[in-house]
Amino acid sequence: MSSYLSVADVTTRIKRLLETSGMVQNVWIQAEISNFKRHSRGHMYFSLKDDRSRIQSVMFAGSNKNLTFTPEDGMSVLVRGDVTVYEPFGQYQLMVKEMQPDGTGNLFAAYEQLKKKLTAAGYFAQDKKKAIPRLPKHIAVITSPTGAAVRDMITTLRRRYPLVKVTLLPVLVQGPDAAPSIARAIRQADETGWFDTIIAGRGGGSIEDLWAFNEEETVLAAASCRTPVISAVGHETDTTLFDFAADLRAPTPTAAAELAVPDITEMREFVHDRRGRIHRAAAERFERAQDALKRLEQSYAFRYPKRLIEEKEQQLDWMTDRLKQRLQESGSRKREQERSLTNRLHAAHPKKQLERNREQLQERKHQLERAVRKLHQEKASRLELQLSKLDLLSPVQLMRKGYALPYAEDGKLVRSREDAPEKSMLKLRVSDGLLACRVESNTPIQKEDPPHE
Amino acid sequence: MSEEQENHTFETSMRQLEEIVQRLEKGDVPLEEAMELFQEGMKLSKDCHERLTKVEKQMTDVLSEDGSLSTLPEEEL
C-alpha cells in the first residue's frame, strides 16, 4: 500500500515543486483583470488573463492596502507575485503582492533595454565596485529633504555613529526633474572631495515613483562617481538600475545608513574586547615566559651545574685545608729560608761592606802607619848611624882623637905649608880650646915619611 | 583639517589595535616586544575608547545646489 501516494501527498509535492523552483516566484506579469471580487475581509480574488490563458489570483488585504487605484474587470495591469498551490482544491494560483495599472508597460521595456545597454557598457561590473569606508568621517545624503527616508537615514547615522558628519544634498526624487537633480547632486558631492561615502535614495513607492533611479543620467552619475555610493531606493523588493551601478545596494534607506557606518556601541565593545584580549595575550605571554624560565631553572642543565658547584665547593674546602696544611708545613722551612736569606741580606747590606771597607781601610792605615813607622825607624836608625858616622867625622871628634885645626892669623884654615909661613902665628883649635902657636919651621913632608893617619 | 587628521588617526589607531591583538595572540612575539606591544595596545585602546565616548553632537549640514552650506533645522528630523 505504501507505494500509493495520497492526494494530499501529490498536492504537497506539486506545491513544493512550484514554490522551490523559483521559476514562478516573484514574477512580473502583464495581464487583464476579470472576475474581480473583493471579499468583505479585504482580500481580493480575481483572474488574470491574456488572449491565450488565465490564472486564478488572490491579493490579500496586507498587500492591496497600498494600492492607489481600484482594480476592476477589464483593466490592464502589471502584477508581481508568486505562484502557489491552494491545497484544499489542488489548484495553483497567483498570490499577487503588487499591482500597477499597465500604463507603465513601456517603462519595463525601457528598464530592460537600458539595463542591457549599461551592462554591456560595463557600468555594473563588479570589479568597478569601490569599497565602502569602514569608519567614514563625512557622509553625503542625497535625497528629498522631506519625508521618512531622510529622517530615517540621518537619525540612524547619528544613533549608530555620532562621530560622522552628515551633509544633506536635497534633491527631487520624483517627477521629470528628479533624475537631473539626483545626477547633479552626485557629481557635486563627488567634486567637493569632502565625502567618504555618498548615500543616495528615497523611500518606497510605485515603479513610476522610483523611476528617476532607473534613468540613464542617474545611473551614469553613480557609475562614474569616484566616491563610494550606497543606493538606498525604496523597499527591499524594489530593484533599480541605480542599485546595480552603486558600489553597494541597501534594501532600504535605514539599511543604507546601517551599512554606511559602524555601530559605536559595537566599536566600544570592539575596543573593550581588544583591550581584554591584549591583557590576556600579554598575561599569557608573560606566564609562558615565566614557565619557560622556571622550566629552565629546574632543568638538568641548570641543576647539574648547581651540583657541580656544590662538588667544587667541597673540593675547594678540601683543597683549602690541604693548602693550609702545606703552608704550615712549609712555613717553618720557609721561615728558615727567609731568615737565612735575611741574614744573607743583612750580611750583604752595604753597611757591612762599608764597615768591612772601613776596617780594611783602617787595616791599611795601620799597615801604612806601621810601614811608615818602620821606615821612619829604619831611617832614624840609619840617620843615627850616619850621624854617629858623621859624628865620628866631626872635627870635634877628630880633635878628641887628637886632631887639631890650625887657623892662620887672617882666620883661614891652614891646609898647606903655604898657609903658614915660618914665624907666623897660628891659632890651633883643639877639642876644648885654642892654642896660640908659632911656626918654627916649614918643611915639606918626605914621601918616605908619611904622616900618621 | 586637524579634525580630519584626528579621524584619520582614529581609524589608524583602530587598525593598529587590531594588529597588536593579533600579533600578541599569535604568541610568538619576543618578550620585550610583547611588553612594548602590550603598552602600545593599552594606549591605543584607551585613546580609541576616549574618542568613542567623547562624542560631540554633530549638526547636519545642507549643501545646496549653488554650493552654499546651511544647518538643517533639528525639528525637521
Notes on the structure:
Helix content of chain A is 48%, strand content 19%. Chain A is α/β, with parallel strands linked by helices and 453 residues long. Chain A folds into four domains: 7-102, OB fold (Dihydrolipoamide Acetyltransferase, E2P) (Beta Barrel); 122-262, Rossmann fold (3-Layer(aba) Sandwich), CATH 3.40.50.10550; 269-317; 396-438, no CATH class. The model of chain A has no long low-confidence stretch (mean pLDDT 84). With 77 residues, chain B is mainly α. Chain B has one domain (2-76). Helices cover 62% and strands 8% of the residues of chain B. Chain B contains two helices and two strands, in the order ααββ. Chain B has a two-stranded antiparallel ribbon. In chain B, a hairpin with a 5-residue loop joins β1 (61-63) and β2 (69-71). The longest helix of chain B has 25 residues, at 2-26. The chains are: A alpha/beta (453), B mainly alpha (77). Chain A binds chain B through residues 134-135, 137, 140, 145-146, 150-151, 154-155, 158, 162-170, 184-185, 188-189, 192, 264, 267-268, 270-272, 274-275, 277-279, 281-282, 284-286, 288-289, and chain B through 3-4, 7-8, 10-11, 14, 17-18, 20-21, 24-25, 27, 29, 31, 34-35, 37-38, 41-42, 45, 48-49, 51-53, 55-58, 60-65, 67, 69, 72, 76-77. β7 (165-170) of chain A pairs parallel with β1 (61-63) of chain B. Chain B: GO terms for molecular function: exodeoxyribonuclease VII activity. Chain B: It comes from Alkalicoccus urumqiensis. Chain B: InterPro entries: Exonuc_VII_S (IPR003761), Exonuc_VII_ssu_sf (IPR037004).
